[in-house]
Design brief:
Residues 675-699 are annotated as: Disordered. Interacts (via extracellular domain region) with trypsin. GO terms for molecular function: oligopeptide transmembrane transporter activity; symporter activity. Its main location: membrane. It is found in: Apical cell membrane; Membrane. The chain is of the alpha+beta class and 699 residues long. The chain has 4 domains: 1-222, Growth Hormone, Chain: A; 223-261; 283-378 and 570-667, MFS general substrate transporter like domains (Growth Hormone, Chain: A), CATH 1.20.1250.20; 385-566, Sandwich (Immunoglobulin-like). 53% of the residues lie in helices and 16% in strands. It has helices at residues 7-27, 29-36, 41-70, 72-93, 110-141, 148-178, 190-210, 224-241, 263-278, 283-289, 295-300, 319-341, 348-376, 577-600, 607-631, 637-660, 667-698; strands at 180-181, 187-188, 385-392, 398-403, 407-411, 415-416, 420-423, 429-434, 437-442, 450-458, 461-468, 480-486, 492-496, 499-504, 513-515, 523-527, 532-536, 545-554, 557-566. The strands form 5 sheets. Strands 3, 6, 7, 10 and 11 form a 5-stranded mixed sheet that branches. The chain has a 4-stranded antiparallel sheet with strand order 5-4-8-9, with no helix packed on it. A 4-stranded mixed sheet has the order 15-12-18-19, with no helix packed on it. A hairpin with a 2-residue loop joins strand 8 and strand 9. The chain is elongated, with a radius of gyration of 33 Å. The model has no long low-confidence stretch (mean pLDDT 86).
């Protein structure tokens, strides 16, 4: 078809569906840990990076299985089945109603959900990691030797399918996650958010099987990684045996393998080891890079995602693939040629060094954003303190005096004050003065708590009510809280959307309830003794807390006043774009260049060894994050960002020093030299055999 083997179209479609499945699931994973399983941020981050590390360790296993035992086709087939089962198990494990027997909205046996989720993730890690090194190579196997141009086009299409799957899934699955579903109680729809990727993985498997008769299936020919490992192992063992000084030293420690392995293989391994040595500092870059899906997503939950339409925190990850698609051609066709025109020697290792520096700067930018978020957060009372907020629900101005002689506050009609902080040991009482009335209140406040004092002047005096707010921190995960206060002189029944706040007596206050979708407007309904009044609420900001006063009803229209107890998230998610831009620039310079450099410095038959080493650096980078998240005593998130930025900067300097001592080689020249020597030796052997034959004939 168009000069291509028909089989490769099945492989490209399979890769699109698999990448959609993986990135879609991964996009919502951190919020699933924190919001559904209710793990704290550090533990959720540690488990997330454990999963990613496992995904990058298992490709080595997959490559060995494919090359030494099953072949690429069977490896992809069997591990895809494991992969699809894992996605299905994860989706089932996220069903809230699975163990919610009392229908209260919370699983009665969360351990069951956790167990299913972990089993699902382990299966997914083995599936996605195991097929990772096989699919692209299997696609390459479909072409004949004279189809080099078509093979190159295939790899471009293959890379495009990866990015398309990543882009679409990162956009779609967070939107599905943000919707509500459930049998007995409506909650964020994780079963569907994981279920759609599971369906796509099943589609990927079916598509791959449909094309099975068209595939060219190359038999397993042995794994070069095993051969390299055996050679290195033999060299170390042989060197240890001959450690005595009576044995002459050899030029390189690998030369101790020459008794068993040929010189060409030893020379090839030497070339690979020179590159692998440069890989030692690289995990620190991946420790920074892969936090897009964990720490940066958690950071976005405390930000305002209103772009005219609501962006979910886990959708911000889409900035990276969008920028990659834009920047790779721009850098290749514009930036690099410009640098070349300026006659700057911008070698691959220098590009990687600059990439690491930009990665460090991305985390400095993340730290600055985090400082702004922290500064916008409310200050809650410390030990020995309490906070009081005043709401005047009457039509007459009031003055509140805090005693003994602490301060006096004027409160206008239908207005509120902010929270005022007092030492609990000093504040003994207060007086409310409104109209011609004066009301005194003796106080015994509990430290570290917030209180709301709502009052109003009526002809018979001043009515007042004290409320413990029972909120000790800003609502997490971008959720918002709302409560109602009844300003009528009779009891009313209050609902907002599907939420029932029950009956409220005059001047009584309901408990806070979470707003299902803070960006929406809801119909507030107050059922009065003889009729019902309604009004649409304002849109609630994300991460805020609100008190709504029910004030009056005229012709079935309800009049309310919104009071802001905790300000919503004010730092906009757009402020994350600079850090994503810097990190994407870093990825283009570091990742793309790193693989290109590695492949240019190693023999053609050793590419898989370098691929394994590269993936291993990603795994180790994620292990670094889970260690820091697990043992770090740093309380402030901005400080952790600065720590990672500093560590990457130090590693960047170390890498620059290592790179300055590296000498670039051409593996093809070295291999050609070996080929010449082998030909010479073959000729010598041939000449020697001919002479022997001539001598034999004379005899």
């Amino acid at each position: 078809c168009f000069g291509f083997p028909l089989s490769i179209f099945f492989i490209v479609i399979n890769e699109f569906c698999e990448r959609f499945s993986y990135y879609g699931m991964k996009a919502v994973l951190t919020l699933y840990f924190t919001r559904f399983l209710h793990w704290d941020d550090n533990f959720a981050t540690a488990i997330y990076h454990t999963f990613v590390a496992l995904c990058y360790l298992t490709p080595i296993l997959g490559a060995i299985i494919a090359d030494s035992w099953l072949g690429k086709f069977k490896t992809i087939l069997y591990l895809s089945i494991v992969y699809a089962i894992g996605q299905a198990v994860l989706s089932v494990g996220s069903i809230n109603d699975l163990t919610d027997h009392n229908h209260d909205g919370s699983p009665d046996a969360i351990a069951v959900n956790i167990a299913l989720s972990m089993v699902g993730l382990i299966l997914i890690a083995f599936g996605t990691g195991g097929i990772k090194p096989c699919v692209s190579a299997f696609g390459g196997d479909q072409f004949e030797e004279d189809q080099e141009k078509q093979r190159s086009t295939f790899f471009s299409l293959f890379y495009l399918s990866i990015n398309a799957g990543s882009l679409l899934s990162t956009l779609i699955t967070p939107s599905i996650r943000a919707s509500e579903c459930g049998i007995h109680s409506k909650q964020e729809c994780y079963p569907l958010a994981f279920g759609v990727p599971a369906i796509l993985m099943a589609v990927a498997l079916v598509v791959f099987i449909i094309g099975s008769r068209m595939y060219k299936k190359v038999k397993p020919q042995g794994n070069i990684m095993l051969e390299v490992s055996k050679c290195v192992g033999f060299a170390i063992k042989n060197r240890f045996r001959h450690r005595s000084k009576k044995f002459p030293k050899r030029e390189h420690w690998l030369d101790w393998a020459s008794e068993k392995y040929d010189k060409r293989l030893i020379a090839q391994i030497k070339m690979v080891l020179r590159v692998l040595f440069l890989y030692i500092p690289l995990p620190m870059f991946w420790a920074v890079f892969d936090q897009q899906g964990s720490r940066w997503t958690l950071q976005a939950t405390a930000m305002n995602g209103d772009f005219g339409f609501q962006i979910q925190p886990d959708q911000m990850q889409i900035v990276n693939p969008i920028l990659i698609v834009i920047m790779v051609p721009v850098v290749d066709s514009l930036v690099y040629p410009l640098i070349k025109k300026c006659k700057l020697n911008f070698t691959p290792l220098k590009k990687m060094t600059v990439g690491m520096f930009l990665g460090s700067m991305a985390f400095v930018a993340a730290a600055l954003v985090q400082v702004q978020i922290d500064n916008s957060n409310p200050v809650f009372p410390a030990a020995g303190q309490a906070q009081i907020k005043l709401i005047n629900l009457g039509a007459v101005p009031a003055t509140v005096q805090f005693k003994p002689q602490l301060q006096s506050v004027d409160v206008a009609p239908n207005m509120e004050t902010g929270y005022m902080t007092f030492e609990t040991s000093k504040l003994k009482s207060l007086d409310i003065i409104s109209g011609n009335e004066n009301k005194s209140e003796d106080l015994e406040l509990t430290e570290t708590l917030r209180y709301t004092l709502a009052f109003k002047w009526v002809p018979t005096g001043i009515n007042a009510t004290w409320v413990k707010d029972n909120v000790t921190s800003k609502p997490e995960d971008g959720k918002s809280l709302v409560r109602f206060i009844n300003n009528f002189s009779f009891t009313v029944n209050v609902t907002m959307g599907d939420m029932d706040f029950g009956k409220l007596d005059p001047l009584s206050v309901s408990n806070y309830s979470f707003v299902p979708n803070p960006g929406w407007s809801y119909t507030i309904k107050a059922s009065l003794p003889q009729y019902t009044c309604t009004v649409d609420s304002k849109e609630f900001g994300y991460g805020g807390a609100y008190t709504i006063s029910l004030d009056d009803c005229v012709e079935n229209k309800l009049f309310v006043t919104h009071f802001e107890d905790i300000a919503p998230n004010t730092v906009h998610m757009a402020w994350q774009i600079p850090q994503y831009f810097l990190l994407t620039c870093a990825e283009v310079l570091f990742s793309v260049t790193g693989l290109e450099f590695s492949y240019s410095q190693a023999p053609s038959n050793m590419k898989s060894v370098l691929q394994a080493g590269w993936l291993l650096t990603v795994a180790v980078g994620n292990i670094i994050v889970l260690i820091v998240a697990g043992v770090s005593a740093i309380k402030e998130q901005w400080a952790e960002y600065v720590l990672f930025a500093a560590l990457l900067l130090v590693v960047c300097i170390i890498f620059a020093i290592m790179a300055s001592f590296y000498t670039y080689i051409d593996p093809n020249e070295i291999e050609a030299q070996f080929s010449k020597e082998e030909k010479k030796e073959d000729k010598k052997d041939q000449d020697s055999n001919e002479k022997e034959a001539e001598t034999d004939s004379r005899l």
